[in-house]
Design a protein that fits this description.
It contains 7 helices and 18 strands. By secondary structure, the protein is an alpha+beta fold. It folds into 2 domains: 126 residues, Diaminopimelate Epimerase, Chain A, domain 1; 156 residues, Diaminopimelate Epimerase, Chain A, domain 1, CATH 3.10.310. It has an 18-stranded mixed sheet that branches. Helix 3 crosses helix 4 and helix 3 packs across helix 6.
Length: 304
């Protein structure tokens, strides 16, 4: 029976068993969507990335597809960072630039000499929305006053750099830490605002060097709480610029904490240019192995 090399890689951290774990299959050439989905279910990570080296066949250097244990998704920040960190650690790629083909388009990737992976996300979009703070607080399990306190200066908004999130400011870390979401209510909010989930944040971070502390809830996507979320971090950074959160003095690099309340601490770095958003972080391989892959039940060879 055919076997494939499979990894578990902890993204947005330099320590194993922290950050956000992703499955990575470095050579997915010839695998069907059915096989990829079954591998993702077996590995059990929130997302598993499947990579194909395109060589000189295409403008892009690699093709990537992302699968949760139940479905394919178009984009995943932490699985992208995990994939390139794993390739770099194995010596399969050199530091420098790469062009990655995803379901949402071709995205530039950079791996630095120090091993940090930078992913350029889609052009940002931000739209402020009217919300009922009582309903929002009840859905998140946060005292509505903790949301209303900052609402005048920092409105709730839908922001996206590839995947849309409802961005919700919270006044203090203590209130954010108390969040105990009603998953059904968060799913209803996600459906109403056409977002993947809710990213709640506070400037009251644990580390003085951090810009903010965030938590991401995406039960509609099968993720009650995501430990560390690259796509949501990019969306939040775009939001902060759109609402002029720093009053014209925007930091060159944002440092976003996440995952501490689910015992998977991690850090995401974000840089904003003129219409561009770059999300960066480290990653470490925590498991290496081989999976036996049964024949596909469909004819769906991965294409360049």
């Amino acid at each position: 029976m055919e076997t494939r090399r499979a990894l578990l890689v902890d993204a947005f951290t330099d320590q194993p068993l922290a950050g956000n774990v992703a499955g990575v299959v470095p050579d997915a050439a010839g695998l069907s969507a059915d096989q990829m989905g079954r591998i993702a279910a077996e590995l059990g990570a929130s997302e598993t990335a499947f990579l194909v080296d395109l060589g000189d066949r295409d403008r892009a250097d690699r093709r990537i597809r992302y699968f949760t244990p139940t479905t394919e998704v178009d984009l995943c920040g932490h699985a992208t960072v995990a994939s390139y960190a794993a390739l770099s650690a194995a010596g399969a790629i050199e530091p420098g630039e790469d062009l990655l083909r995803t379901n949402v388009g071709d995205l530039p990737i950079e791996v630095t000499e120090g091993g940090r992976v930078w992913m350029t996300q889609d052009a940002p979009s931000v739209e402020t929305v009217e919300v009922d703070y009582a309903r929002l607080g009840d859905a998140l399990g946060i005292d509505p006053a903790a949301l209303h306190d900052v609402g005048a200066d920092l409105p709730v908004a839908v922001a996206s750099t590839g995947l849309p999130f409802l961005i919700v400011p919270v006044n203090f870390l203590e209130r954010l830490g108390e969040a105990d979401p009603d998953e059904r209510a968060v799913e209803e909010l996600s459906e109403e605002y056409d977002v993947v989930g809710v990213y709640a944040f506070t400037f009251d971070a644990l580390d003085a060097e951090s810009t903010l502390h965030g938590r991401a809830f995406a039960p509609a996507a099968g993720i009650p709480e995501d430990p560390v979320t690259g796509t949501a971090s990019g969306a939040c950074a775009a939001y902060l610029r759109a609402v002029d959160a720093f009053e014209g003095s925007f930091p060159s690099t944002l440092r976003l904490e996440q995952g501490h309340f689910v015992d998977r601490p991690g850090l995401v770095y974000v840089r904003l240019g003129a219409g561009t958003v770059r999300v960066g972080g480290e990653a470490v391989v925590s498991f290496r192995g081989e999976l036996s892959v049964p024949p596909s039940t469909e004819d769906d060879i991965i294409e360049a």
